[in-house]
Each structure stands twice: as structure tokens, then as C-alpha cells.
Amino acid sequence: MSETTTATPIANFPGLVAGTWAVDPSHSEVGFTVRHLMSKVRGVFNEYTGTIEIGENVENSKVNVEVELNSVSTRNETRDNHLRSGDFFSTDTNPKMTFVGTSVRPNGDDWVLVGDLTIREVTKPIELEFEFLGVEQNPYGQTVAGFEAKAKINRYDFGVDFNMPGAGERLVIGEKVDIHLIIEAALQA
């Protein structure tokens, strides 16, 4: 079934129209990278939901995302279980991480999504730099849009402050966490 729309496209975003777009987890990724000694550990969250409300004026757009913290995967079961524990996410009492995007603003050739990130019942404002990748019809006739976004947070700001001493004064796990998102969202009828 092919979707058609009569909405006016959004300036600076060819093909993007106002409306509700649902994040497609099977074609998206919510991931992170954090320093561990001299290397970096990469991980993803495999279960999440999200909607993007594109406003007639893109700067009034909204985003709502819920991430199941139990779905964390760093390709190491022991480490993933530790991340679920009270040392990190404390998923027994804080099963979800949420992001509520409240506005969009230009940043050179790219854009910034401003919103509130909540982890372990601590909410802090963050800014996600994002790139619009375009709009296409998928093989099922749905109109889909693509975005890539990134942000850097300090995990200590959210009460995720477990660490271990390394050699000298160095700690084993870095404070800074790079967040990266690859999002494909489908226009809802």
C-alpha cells in the first residue's frame, strides 16, 4: 500500500512533511561509546520506541524516545550484566532511559535537537547534533526519513559514576560517553 501526502514539505528538509513519524527499530540504532583504559567499548540498546513529531515549522518539532536499559549489548554478557546492575543503570528500579526533544535549531549545515535525557531518575538537558539524510519510499510503500545524530554526555551527571582505579591516577572507565543514533522513521497515516 503506497502512502501519499498533500502536506507542504519542510524548508531545508527535501521531502520531509509535518506529521508523526515512528522510529523503526529494525532499521535504526541507538548506540554509545565509552573509554575503557586505552580502548573504547561500543554498545547498543536493542529495544526502544520513539516518535518524531515534525511541526509545520521544523523548529517546533518534538521527539519522544524510550529505551529499555535491560536491552544493552556490548557483545560481552558479563559486562552487560554489570551495566544492568546498581553500579551503572540499576535496571531493577530504573528500567528505562528517556529522551524528550523539545526544539530544533540550525547549526551551520546541520541541525541541533534540544531536549531532556533521563537516566536513573536524573534529567539533564542535552543537545543532539543531527544530519537529515533524506526521504524515500521503502519497498512496502511507506514514506521513511533518515537521520544521524550524536551527542556527548558525562555519565557522572546522571548518577552513573561507578569506576575502578587503573595505573597511576587513571580510572578504568571514562566519564564521557559518546551517543550515536542512526534513525529511520516512517510517516504515520
TrEMBL record:
<protein>
    <submittedName>
        <fullName>YceI family protein</fullName>
    </submittedName>
</protein>
<dbReference type="InterPro" id="IPR007372">
    <property type="entry name" value="Lipid/polyisoprenoid-bd_YceI"/>
</dbReference>
<comment type="similarity">
    <text>Belongs to the UPF0312 family.</text>
</comment>
<feature type="domain" description="Lipid/polyisoprenoid-binding YceI-like">
    <location>
        <begin position="20"/>
        <end position="186"/>
    </location>
</feature>
<dbReference type="Pfam" id="PF04264">
    <property type="entry name" value="YceI"/>
</dbReference>
<dbReference type="InterPro" id="IPR036761">
    <property type="entry name" value="TTHA0802/YceI-like_sf"/>
</dbReference>
